[in-house]
Design brief:
With 451 residues, this protein is mostly beta strands. The chain has two helices and 20 strands.
């Protein structure tokens, strides 16, 4: 007999001939369900990288148990309305508007359909995966092994190997990522990580972690949440892992401390850029870089391949409040950047004992992103920055976010309202080029089902 376990208020049972398979008893009803499954992983096994489908964020509802083996199915669907600032609609249609800033019409899309399949075995070992589907196709979002060992009693060792996001990713509490999150830790990499956590007291502890990853490619990444809409602008960041010529190792480390809801994290990553998806990408997309000494296109051996990024994060969670602040600075060859954000939210329990309209959360965030020396005038009276929208990766940004998140049904169904005020700095004062901000604000309305 095979049993599928659900939480107490929704448990059901599936009968089938199979030896030595067991689960928890049915409490309310039995429903026959037929679905296919793939190998994946358990409830996060407390892997040190941020897990979108951890038990805290997404409690298990569908679990197949066989002795000390368990297979859990989780998922998420996001239906979104996007409205970028600017005229749009049938009477403002622009058939020639491809990737330029022209007319913009509100639209609805299935932003994400994720399946997280998690297979746990041998008590503390698991294989985790996230499969992503959208209207353009399907891809693997994550596949990684995780495990933990406690020895001695106060010291916990955690391991992870595979395709997953960098181990400094954090829960952002909004649909849109902060700019420095988009640039540095949003997308997955192939890595091996080790993290040791020492419990000093009941609510106090420290952790030290190290990682070895494969360099991710430099790529265009969206400033707005509406990345699929025509007329959006981009910046340069680290895209999802892929294989390319010359990609080498990236070494990372972090130190974390927490006590009574407050925490702080220091982290850094170091490596070397290759030509493909590295210095070539910089030279091609920052058009003036190819005129500088560090970008001699005829002698790649003389190019500056420096790569590092490092940062500090601090926050507090308690009494319904969630505060988070983070700053990162980086260097990719001659490109030097820095950014930070700070956000504060308050989550109010409206009906703690009810299933409908359980909580409401108000959030505000401010972020700032800067590139060094982009407005400095070069010898030929040019500058690295250009006000052209096609050169938006050379701009600085200030972005403010306001969000309202309502839990409609249990922890399964949420409604999000998010608005982003996007401010661009794209002028070059030394050349008499004034700053010309664009109409780039964005409204997002999202219905999220997480099961």
């Amino acid at each position: 007999m095979v049993r599928l376990f659900f939480p107490p208020d929704s448990a059901f049972l599936v009968n089938a001939p199979s030896p030595r398979l067991w689960g928890l008893p049915v409490r309310r009803r039995s429903i026959l369900i037929v679905f296919s499954v793939q190998l994946a992983a358990l409830h996060s096994a407390n892997g040190q990288s941020f897990d979108e489908f951890s038990e805290r964020r997404s409690p298990s509802h569908f679990r197949l148990q066989s002795g000390d083996l368990s297979l859990t199915l989780k998922g998420e669907v996001e239906l979104e309305l996007h409205d970028l600032q600017g005229s749009g609609g049938a009477t403002h249609d622009s058939p020639t508007d491809t990737r330029t800033l022209g007319t913009r019409s509100p639209f609805v899309e299935i932003d994400a359909f994720w399946l997280a399949l998690r297979f746990a075995f041998a008590d503390q070992l698991a294989i985790n995966s996230i499969l992503e589907f959208d209207q353009s196709g399907a891809r693997i979002g994550a596949v990684y092994f995780s495990g933990k060992l406690r020895w001695p009693e106060r010291l916990e060792h955690r391991f992870e190997a595979g395709l997953h996001t960098p181990f400094v990713k954090v829960e952002r509490r909004t649909e849109r990522y902060p700019l420095i999150g988009t640039i540095y830790w949003r997308h997955p990499e192939f890595h091996i990580t080790y993290n040791a956590r020492l419990r000093l007291a009941r609510e106090t502890g420290i952790a030290l972690g190290v990682s070895v990853a494969i360099m991710r490619p430099l790529a265009f990444l969206p400033v707005q949440e509406s990345s699929s809409q025509q007329g959006t602008i981009n910046l340069l960041g680290y895209g999802p892992a892929r294989f390319f010529s010359g990609n080498g190792p990236v070494y990372g480390a972090r130190f974390h401390a927490h006590t009574h809801g407050a925490y702080a994290t220091l982290f850094g990553f170091l490596g070397s850029l290759s030509a493909e998806a590295g210095t070539d990408e910089l030279r091609n997309n920052f058009s003036r870089f190819q005129d500088l000494p560090g970008y001699n296109s005829e002698d790649k051996q003389q190019q500056d391949t420096t790569f590092y990024w490092a940062g500090l994060r601090t926050g507090y969670d308690g009494y319904g409040f969630h505060f988070l602040a983070e700053a990162i600075f980086s260097r990719e060859s001659l490109l030097q950047r820095q950014g930070f954000y700070a956000q504060l939210s308050y989550e109010l329990e409206l009906r703690p004992e009810k299933k409908l309209f359980c909580t409401i959360e108000l959030l505000t965030r401010y972020e700032r992103y800067r590139l060094k020396d982009t407005t400095v005038v070069l010898d030929d009276d040019g500058a690295l920055r250009s006000p052209a929208p096609s050169e938006a990766i050379t701009w600085d940004y200030d972005i403010a976010t306001a969000a309202l998140i309502v839990t409609i049904y249990r922890q399964l169904l949420r409604l999000r309202f998010e608005y982003y005020w996007v401010g661009e700095a794209n002028g070059v004062p030394a050349l008499g080029i004034a700053n010309s901000p664009l109409k780039n604000d964005e409204l997002l309305v999202q219905l999220e089902l997480r099961f």
